[in-house]
Amino acid sequence: MFRKFALPALTAIRAAGTVGGLMTSPATASAQPPATFDHDHGHGRFQVLVRHPLHRDVQGTYRNRVEAIGVARRLERQGLDTRIERVR
User: Fewer Cβ in 10 A, N or C end of the chain?
Assistant: First the structure.
């Protein structure tokens, strides 16, 4: 019989505590700027360079070497001389 009265009472106390806790929380957001993260973790970036008679042009900059190799191979199949350089 005690359980019949105790369970609803505890549930009501818990619900009141949850609602009360939500009511007392601040309604405004903090004014701090969003955090920025360095996703490269020291790995650097890779540039694909295409050779021309007097200079090299940057074809693109890629996050990882696999992407850079894929682009370089595609350009080589088109008859261009390519080179991959790591940029920090």
Answer: N
Q: Is 34 part of any domain?
A: no
Q: 51 near 80, Cβ under 8 Å?
A: yes
For the question of whether the overall pTM of this predicted structure is more than 0.90, the answer is: no
Of 73, 64, 59, nearest in space to 45 by CA = 64
In a domain, 31, yes or no: no
Nearest to 24 by CA among 34, 32, 16: 16
Domain encompassing residue 9: 2-26+40-87
To 5 degrees, how large is the angle CA 52–CA 80–CA 63?
95
